[in-house]
Amino acid sequence: MMNIWGDDGKHIRNGDILRLEGAEAKLFKGFLQLTTTRYGKIRRVGEDTMVFQESPNISKMLWVTEEESRAMAPKEEGQC
């Protein structure tokens, strides 16, 4: 999911390839969310001509923090 504030959202269409500056990515209710900041910049750099596919849906993947990732990683021999 991507949230865009202000008039920038009026000029974006499906298939646009965008360059974002000053954006934040975070987990919100288990979904990956990309949000522009107040002083962020959005620039259209092209258009995707590939056929759109809804799978894999990246938001439905299991996203974990670095700490959770370390806890789930197999321990090497000789490590506590």
TrEMBL record:
One of its GO terms (biological process) is double-strand break repair via homologous recombination. One of its GO terms (molecular function) is DNA binding. GO terms for cellular component: SOSS complex. The keyword Cell membrane does not apply. It comes from the Eukaryota. Transmembrane segments: none annotated. Keywords: DNA-binding. InterPro entries: NA-bd_OB-fold, SOSS-B. This is Uncharacterized protein.
